[in-house]
Write a structure and sequence with these properties.
3-stranded mixed sheet; alpha/beta; 2 domains; 2-enoyl-CoA Hydratase, Chain A, domain 1
Amino acid sequence: MSAINTNILKSNVLKFSVENHIATITLNQPETRNSISEHEMIDAIVAACDEINQNLDIRVAILTGAGSAFCSGGNVKDMRDKTGMFAGSGDELADNYRNGIQRIPKAFAALEVPVIAAINGPAVGAGCDLTCMCDIRIASSRAKFAESFIKVGIIPGDGGAWFLPRIIGISRASQMALTGQMIDADTALEWHLISEIVKHDALLIRAHELASQIAEHSPRVLRETKRLLKLGQVMDLPELLDESAKIQAQLHATDDHMEAVTAFLEKRDPVFTGK
Protein backbone atom coordinates (compact mmCIF):
# COMPACT_ATOMS: atom_id res chain seq x y z
CA MET A 1 0.00 0.00 0.00
CA SER A 2 1.30 3.48 -0.86
CA ALA A 3 1.90 5.91 1.99
CA ILE A 4 -0.66 8.71 2.44
CA ASN A 5 0.54 12.32 2.19
CA THR A 6 0.88 13.36 5.84
CA ASN A 7 -0.20 16.94 5.08
CA ILE A 8 -3.70 15.63 4.30
CA LEU A 9 -3.83 13.68 7.56
CA LYS A 10 -2.91 16.85 9.51
CA SER A 11 -5.86 18.83 8.14
CA ASN A 12 -8.50 19.73 10.72
CA VAL A 13 -11.17 20.57 8.15
CA LEU A 14 -11.07 17.30 6.22
CA LYS A 15 -10.65 13.66 7.18
CA PHE A 16 -8.92 11.32 4.73
CA SER A 17 -8.37 7.59 4.99
CA VAL A 18 -7.69 4.62 2.72
CA GLU A 19 -8.78 1.04 3.36
CA ASN A 20 -9.20 -1.88 0.95
CA HIS A 21 -8.45 0.36 -2.06
CA ILE A 22 -11.20 2.82 -1.00
CA ALA A 23 -10.39 6.44 -0.09
CA THR A 24 -12.89 8.18 2.18
CA ILE A 25 -12.96 11.98 2.21
CA THR A 26 -15.07 13.60 4.94
CA LEU A 27 -15.65 17.34 4.99
CA ASN A 28 -15.13 18.05 8.68
CA GLN A 29 -16.43 21.50 9.59
CA PRO A 30 -19.85 20.70 11.04
CA GLU A 31 -19.89 24.05 12.86
CA THR A 32 -20.09 25.82 9.45
CA ARG A 33 -22.12 23.01 7.88
CA ASN A 34 -19.00 22.09 5.92
CA SER A 35 -18.73 25.34 3.99
CA ILE A 36 -16.06 25.19 1.29
CA SER A 37 -15.16 28.79 0.46
CA GLU A 38 -12.35 29.03 3.04
CA HIS A 39 -8.82 28.58 1.70
CA GLU A 40 -8.01 25.82 4.21
CA MET A 41 -10.92 23.67 3.03
CA ILE A 42 -10.20 24.35 -0.64
CA ASP A 43 -6.53 23.46 -0.19
CA ALA A 44 -7.45 20.26 1.68
CA ILE A 45 -9.92 19.09 -0.99
CA VAL A 46 -7.44 19.75 -3.80
CA ALA A 47 -4.69 17.96 -1.86
CA ALA A 48 -6.97 14.95 -1.33
CA CYS A 49 -7.69 14.79 -5.07
CA ASP A 50 -3.97 14.97 -5.84
CA GLU A 51 -3.27 12.18 -3.35
CA ILE A 52 -5.94 9.94 -4.89
CA ASN A 53 -4.39 10.33 -8.35
CA GLN A 54 -0.86 9.68 -7.10
CA ASN A 55 -1.70 6.76 -4.79
CA LEU A 56 -2.16 3.82 -7.15
CA ASP A 57 -3.47 1.69 -4.30
CA ILE A 58 -6.70 3.74 -4.47
CA ARG A 59 -9.33 2.46 -6.90
CA VAL A 60 -12.42 4.43 -5.81
CA ALA A 61 -13.28 7.29 -3.45
CA ILE A 62 -16.22 8.26 -1.25
CA LEU A 63 -17.01 11.90 -0.45
CA THR A 64 -19.29 12.76 2.48
CA GLY A 65 -19.81 15.36 5.20
CA ALA A 66 -19.56 15.36 8.99
CA GLY A 67 -22.56 16.41 11.05
CA SER A 68 -26.04 17.15 9.77
CA ALA A 69 -25.10 18.74 6.42
CA PHE A 70 -23.19 17.49 3.41
CA CYS A 71 -21.99 20.97 2.42
CA SER A 72 -23.48 24.45 2.76
CA GLY A 73 -21.36 25.92 -0.03
CA GLY A 74 -19.93 29.41 0.44
CA ASN A 75 -19.76 30.99 3.88
CA VAL A 76 -22.53 33.63 3.83
CA LYS A 77 -21.08 35.46 6.86
CA ASP A 78 -17.85 35.95 4.90
CA MET A 79 -19.94 37.33 2.02
CA ARG A 80 -21.58 39.80 4.38
CA ASP A 81 -18.28 40.85 5.95
CA LYS A 82 -16.43 40.79 2.60
CA THR A 83 -13.67 38.66 4.08
CA GLY A 84 -11.74 35.64 2.85
CA MET A 85 -12.35 34.89 -0.82
CA PHE A 86 -15.09 37.55 -0.88
CA ALA A 87 -12.70 40.43 -0.07
CA GLY A 88 -11.18 42.93 -2.48
CA SER A 89 -12.00 44.88 -5.62
CA GLY A 90 -13.83 43.45 -8.62
CA ASP A 91 -10.63 42.20 -10.26
CA GLU A 92 -9.37 40.81 -6.95
CA LEU A 93 -12.67 38.99 -6.37
CA ALA A 94 -12.48 37.40 -9.83
CA ASP A 95 -8.95 36.21 -9.06
CA ASN A 96 -10.13 34.92 -5.67
CA TYR A 97 -12.61 32.69 -7.48
CA ARG A 98 -10.05 31.53 -10.05
CA ASN A 99 -7.40 30.83 -7.40
CA GLY A 100 -9.87 29.63 -4.79
CA ILE A 101 -13.07 27.64 -5.16
CA GLN A 102 -12.64 27.12 -8.92
CA ARG A 103 -9.64 24.92 -8.13
CA ILE A 104 -12.11 22.32 -6.80
CA PRO A 105 -13.98 21.54 -10.07
CA LYS A 106 -10.64 21.44 -11.88
CA ALA A 107 -9.28 18.99 -9.30
CA PHE A 108 -12.36 16.77 -9.59
CA ALA A 109 -12.23 16.93 -13.39
CA ALA A 110 -8.66 15.64 -13.20
CA LEU A 111 -9.53 12.77 -10.82
CA GLU A 112 -8.77 9.43 -12.44
CA VAL A 113 -10.75 7.14 -10.13
CA PRO A 114 -14.54 7.00 -9.67
CA VAL A 115 -15.95 9.13 -6.84
CA ILE A 116 -19.16 8.35 -4.95
CA ALA A 117 -20.91 11.24 -3.21
CA ALA A 118 -22.59 9.94 -0.04
CA ILE A 119 -24.88 12.89 0.59
CA ASN A 120 -25.79 12.83 4.28
CA GLY A 121 -27.78 16.07 4.49
CA PRO A 122 -28.39 19.39 2.74
CA ALA A 123 -26.14 20.14 -0.26
CA VAL A 124 -26.60 23.83 -0.94
CA GLY A 125 -25.11 26.18 -3.52
CA ALA A 126 -21.51 25.12 -4.12
CA GLY A 127 -22.32 22.05 -2.02
CA CYS A 128 -24.92 21.00 -4.59
CA ASP A 129 -22.38 21.60 -7.34
CA LEU A 130 -19.80 19.56 -5.41
CA THR A 131 -22.10 16.53 -5.59
CA CYS A 132 -22.37 17.06 -9.37
CA MET A 133 -18.59 16.81 -9.68
CA CYS A 134 -18.79 13.21 -8.46
CA ASP A 135 -19.46 10.23 -10.72
CA ILE A 136 -22.14 8.54 -8.60
CA ARG A 137 -24.48 10.22 -6.13
CA ILE A 138 -26.39 8.38 -3.42
CA ALA A 139 -28.32 10.24 -0.77
CA SER A 140 -29.68 9.87 2.71
CA SER A 141 -33.41 10.34 3.06
CA ARG A 142 -32.44 13.55 4.93
CA ALA A 143 -30.60 15.00 1.94
CA LYS A 144 -31.82 18.17 0.25
CA PHE A 145 -30.45 20.07 -2.72
CA ALA A 146 -30.51 23.73 -3.74
CA GLU A 147 -28.73 25.63 -6.52
CA SER A 148 -29.31 28.65 -4.32
CA PHE A 149 -26.78 31.27 -5.47
CA ILE A 150 -29.58 33.52 -6.70
CA LYS A 151 -30.91 33.71 -3.12
CA VAL A 152 -27.78 35.63 -2.08
CA GLY A 153 -27.56 37.74 -5.24
CA ILE A 154 -24.81 35.88 -7.10
CA ILE A 155 -24.43 33.23 -9.83
CA PRO A 156 -22.89 29.73 -9.70
CA GLY A 157 -19.22 30.72 -9.71
CA ASP A 158 -17.83 27.23 -9.29
CA GLY A 159 -18.95 25.59 -12.53
CA GLY A 160 -22.49 24.69 -11.51
CA ALA A 161 -23.87 26.09 -14.77
CA TRP A 162 -21.70 23.51 -16.57
CA PHE A 163 -22.29 20.48 -14.32
CA LEU A 164 -25.97 20.67 -13.38
CA PRO A 165 -27.57 20.84 -16.88
CA ARG A 166 -25.47 17.87 -18.00
CA ILE A 167 -26.94 15.78 -15.19
CA ILE A 168 -30.60 16.81 -14.96
CA GLY A 169 -31.17 18.67 -18.24
CA ILE A 170 -31.38 22.37 -19.00
CA SER A 171 -35.04 22.85 -18.01
CA ARG A 172 -34.74 21.44 -14.51
CA ALA A 173 -31.29 22.97 -14.02
CA SER A 174 -32.77 26.35 -15.00
CA GLN A 175 -35.65 25.82 -12.58
CA MET A 176 -33.23 25.11 -9.72
CA ALA A 177 -30.84 27.95 -10.57
CA LEU A 178 -33.46 30.61 -11.31
CA THR A 179 -35.66 29.92 -8.28
CA GLY A 180 -33.01 28.80 -5.80
CA GLN A 181 -35.63 26.55 -4.25
CA MET A 182 -34.72 23.43 -2.29
CA ILE A 183 -35.67 19.98 -3.56
CA ASP A 184 -35.88 16.88 -1.39
CA ALA A 185 -34.25 13.51 -1.97
CA ASP A 186 -37.35 12.05 -3.65
CA THR A 187 -37.42 14.87 -6.21
CA ALA A 188 -33.65 14.57 -6.71
CA LEU A 189 -34.12 10.88 -7.50
CA GLU A 190 -37.00 11.59 -9.90
CA TRP A 191 -34.85 14.23 -11.65
CA HIS A 192 -31.85 11.84 -11.86
CA LEU A 193 -29.68 14.12 -9.73
CA ILE A 194 -29.04 11.05 -7.55
CA SER A 195 -29.23 7.34 -8.32
CA GLU A 196 -30.32 6.01 -4.91
CA ILE A 197 -31.99 7.07 -1.66
CA VAL A 198 -30.80 5.20 1.44
CA LYS A 199 -32.00 5.23 5.04
CA HIS A 200 -29.84 7.80 6.84
CA ASP A 201 -28.11 5.37 9.19
CA ALA A 202 -27.28 3.03 6.29
CA LEU A 203 -25.80 5.67 3.95
CA LEU A 204 -22.11 5.01 4.55
CA ILE A 205 -22.71 1.26 4.69
CA ARG A 206 -24.26 1.43 1.22
CA ALA A 207 -21.54 3.77 -0.05
CA HIS A 208 -18.82 1.35 1.04
CA GLU A 209 -20.75 -1.60 -0.40
CA LEU A 210 -20.93 0.17 -3.77
CA ALA A 211 -17.28 1.25 -3.51
CA SER A 212 -16.25 -2.35 -2.78
CA GLN A 213 -18.11 -3.57 -5.86
CA ILE A 214 -16.10 -1.08 -7.90
CA ALA A 215 -12.76 -1.67 -6.16
CA GLU A 216 -12.78 -5.41 -6.91
CA HIS A 217 -11.93 -4.63 -10.53
CA SER A 218 -8.61 -3.87 -12.24
CA PRO A 219 -7.34 -0.43 -11.17
CA ARG A 220 -6.21 0.51 -14.67
CA VAL A 221 -9.48 -0.58 -16.24
CA LEU A 222 -11.41 1.48 -13.69
CA ARG A 223 -9.43 4.59 -14.56
CA GLU A 224 -9.73 4.02 -18.31
CA THR A 225 -13.48 3.34 -18.07
CA LYS A 226 -14.04 6.57 -16.13
CA ARG A 227 -11.94 8.47 -18.70
CA LEU A 228 -13.99 7.06 -21.60
CA LEU A 229 -17.28 7.90 -19.90
CA LYS A 230 -16.12 11.51 -19.56
CA LEU A 231 -14.81 11.64 -23.13
CA GLY A 232 -18.16 10.34 -24.33
CA GLN A 233 -19.77 13.56 -23.12
CA VAL A 234 -17.61 15.76 -25.38
CA MET A 235 -16.50 13.52 -28.29
CA ASP A 236 -18.58 12.42 -31.25
CA LEU A 237 -19.08 8.67 -31.74
CA PRO A 238 -16.34 8.04 -34.35
CA GLU A 239 -13.76 9.82 -32.14
CA LEU A 240 -14.82 7.84 -29.07
CA LEU A 241 -14.73 4.54 -30.96
CA ASP A 242 -11.20 5.29 -32.18
CA GLU A 243 -10.03 6.14 -28.66
CA SER A 244 -11.73 3.00 -27.32
CA ALA A 245 -9.91 0.83 -29.85
CA LYS A 246 -6.54 2.26 -28.80
CA ILE A 247 -7.20 1.70 -25.11
CA GLN A 248 -8.64 -1.77 -25.68
CA ALA A 249 -5.52 -2.83 -27.59
CA GLN A 250 -3.36 -1.74 -24.65
CA LEU A 251 -5.53 -3.50 -22.07
CA HIS A 252 -5.48 -6.80 -23.95
CA ALA A 253 -1.72 -6.86 -23.37
CA THR A 254 -1.95 -6.43 -19.56
CA ASP A 255 -1.48 -9.02 -16.84
CA ASP A 256 -4.76 -7.91 -15.26
CA HIS A 257 -6.70 -8.76 -18.42
CA MET A 258 -5.29 -12.29 -18.48
CA GLU A 259 -5.95 -12.65 -14.76
CA ALA A 260 -9.57 -11.54 -15.25
CA VAL A 261 -10.11 -13.99 -18.11
CA THR A 262 -8.43 -16.86 -16.25
CA ALA A 263 -10.36 -16.17 -13.05
CA PHE A 264 -13.62 -16.03 -15.01
CA LEU A 265 -12.96 -19.41 -16.63
CA GLU A 266 -11.78 -20.94 -13.35
CA LYS A 267 -14.82 -19.52 -11.51
CA ARG A 268 -12.73 -17.76 -8.84
CA ASP A 269 -12.16 -14.18 -7.71
CA PRO A 270 -9.37 -12.43 -9.63
CA VAL A 271 -6.33 -10.89 -7.94
CA PHE A 272 -5.26 -7.72 -9.72
CA THR A 273 -1.83 -6.08 -9.59
CA GLY A 274 -2.43 -3.07 -11.82
CA LYS A 275 0.01 -4.45 -14.40
